[in-house]
Amino acid sequence: MANQTLTRADLAEAVYKQVGLSRTESADLVELILDEIAHAIERGENVKLSSFGSFIVRSKGARVGRNPKTGVEVPITPRRVMVFKASNVLKGRINGLEMADEED
Fold this sequence. Notes:
Layout (H helix, E strand, L loop, with lengths): L7 H12 L3 H20 L4 E3 L3 E8 L2 E4 L6 E4 L2 E8 L1 H7 L10
């Protein structure tokens, strides 16, 4: 299996070929979708794409960390992190299993 990266341009090209929009319209559509997902995550909303997965925003509290080289304690400030949880359908596809189109 080759290590390849799917880019925005690749997504736009796929939309162009499969939907039939112009290349510019396809790129704009991909950009619009990604922007909407990003804005929802910025607002702290969870984003669920059925049969794909969920982007979840979690809050982490302040804690004390330690520099592994020096052993010096360092305060870590509270922050929000985003995690991705793949749906069972996507997990099945990754592992070559055909699953019914069910929601997670």
